[in-house]
Amino acid sequence: MPSTPNPDQHSASAANFCLDAQALARLQELDPNGANKLMERVITAYVKSLERLLPELESARGDKLDPNVVRHVCHTLKSSSASLGALDLAERCAEIETLARIGQTDGLEPLLDGMLAQVIQVRQALLSLLPNIP
Q1: Burial class (CB in 10 A: 0-12, 13-18, 19+), 69
Q2: DSSP secondary structure code for residue 71 in this structure
């Protein structure tokens, strides 16, 4: 008889796909028994920051691409993503931030599209961790 997939295993594998386990462990060490719900609070704050930053980024895209807004959004996401273990996303944000800082807008749109796809994956992975937090 085939075994039924465990939803916790699926959530863990989704998180492992785009989140660095060591970075998450370092964060977990700050609240080892979960009494302060640090991990839950940090993930919630990150998701709320996405809700604020992504519309800013969307309005700065297109024909009137605003490299200052792009730089600001990427700078903010870079550090918060890295602290939660989304290292690939943080690296992409750093690359885009650098290009925006020097005013290099050619080729920026596809990089932003890729970044947004990563943001969606990271958000889903982080949210999948919430029920598993002690």
Answers
A1: middle
A2: H
